[in-house]
Write a structure and sequence with these properties.
Layout (H helix, E strand, L loop, with lengths): L1 H15 L6 H9 L5 E6 L6 H13 L5 E7 L11 H5 L1 H5 L3 E6 L11 H10 L4 E5 L16 E6 L4 H14 L2 E4 L7 H13 L11 E3 L8 H18 L1 H32 L2 H10 L4 H16 L12
Parallel strand pairs: 1-4, 1-5, 2-3, 2-4, 5-6, 6-7
Helix pairs in contact: 1-6, 2-6, 3-9, 7-8
Length: 317
């Protein structure tokens, strides 16, 4: 297993560094998706996401499951790497055999690194049964986790009232399980009630009814119930066929974003190299319409741009 962990670490490092992957590796990681269950922990900073991730990982390990954790940390402004705070807070799970990898956001949106999906695929190809993904905790952007995992756990605290009010519409749409952590503090039951009331106002799209749970991560209270609902949601997705729908949507979203980013990089380079932006701005001042500029640029790019496309190292960011 240690040898596998070394190989997995090297593979994720290649993904993080935008190195091209060999065809057999791509075939392996994309052919393995569906075996593992992905669990996302999201919510505001300080809610206890790392603590809860650590506890759930240990509980799954006790059932002889292979667990991988991707902790998306802020990127260091000096080295460009992850600051690794979450990895330190999940040391107990690591001692018991969990594979833990911290990855920096490096400009990724949604509180997630742009390489999170491929890194999770890599973990799955190495036989992980469960993959826990913890977001960086940056508010509105954390909604992106919904498109990467199977079960979203939204972690809040009794002090999260303002956060809930600011995020209410989106927050009620992404969660499969809502957790009020640090429930020994005043206001825990009140905010749990707010969440339940808000959920009642959301149109029902599936038969799954998101539970609202109270936990105390430091004392590990309520965590058995969290695990129970995670496993129930897993069975629900598998039993209804929704898991396959999630996987297909995830793959399509990744490919669309990959192509969009790659083509946009080429377009920017083409615009700058040919000095087109300044020319188009002058044309706008002279009354050329946006539609005319768009058509003019597309004609030029399709004729000249694609003939000069360069193969780059950044293949899947």
């Amino acid at each position: 297993m240690n040898g596998d962990k070394m190989k997995l670490s090297k593979l994720i490092s290649k993904i993080e560094d935008f190195e091209e992957l060999e065809p057999d590796i791509i075939k392996k990681i994309f052919g393995s998706e569906g075996r593992a269950h992905r669990i996302g922990f999201t919510g505001p900073p300080g809610a206890g996401k790392s603590t809860l991730s650590d506890i759930i990982a240990r509980k799954l390990l006790e059932e002889n499951k292979k667990v991988g954790i991707l902790a998306v940390d802020p990127t260091s402004p000096f080295t460009g790497g992850a600051i690794l705070g979450d990895r330190i807070r999940m040391s107990e799970a690591m001692k018991k055999g969990a594979f833990i990898r911290s990855i920096g956001t490096r400009g990724g949106i949604g509180g997630l690194s742009r390489r999170t999906y491929l890194s999770s695929l890599s973990m799955e190809s190495f036989g992980m049964d469960y993959i826990i993904i913890e977001t960086v905790g940056v508010g509105q952007a954390d909604f992106e986790v919904k498109f990467i995992v199977d079960t979203v756990c939204v972690v809040l605290t009794p002090e999260s009232g303002d956060y809930v009010q600011a995020m209410k519409a989106g927050l009620m749409e992404i969660g499969d399980i809502y957790i009020i952590n640090k429930c020994d503090r005043p206001g825990a039951k009140e905010i749990a009630g707010e969440i339940k009331n808000a959920l009642d106002l959301i149109p029902i799209e599936t038969e799954w009814n998101p539970p609202v749970l109270l936990t105390n991560g430091i004392k590990e209270e309520g965590m058995e119930e969290v695990k129970k609902y995670i496993l129930e949601h897993q069975r629900y997705l598998n039993g209804t066929g929704l898991k396959n729908e999630i996987i297909n949507k995830r793959r399509k979203r990744f490919l669309i974003e990959f192509l969009r980013d790659e083509i946009w990089d080429e377009i920017q380079e083409f615009l700058e190299k040919n000095g087109l932006i300044d020319n188009y701005l002058i044309e706008l001042k002279n009354g050329t319409t946006f539609e005319e500029i768009k058509k003019k640029f597309l004609n030029m790019f399709l004729q000249k741009g694609f003939k000069t496309l360069k193969t780059k190292n950044k293949k899947y960011g």
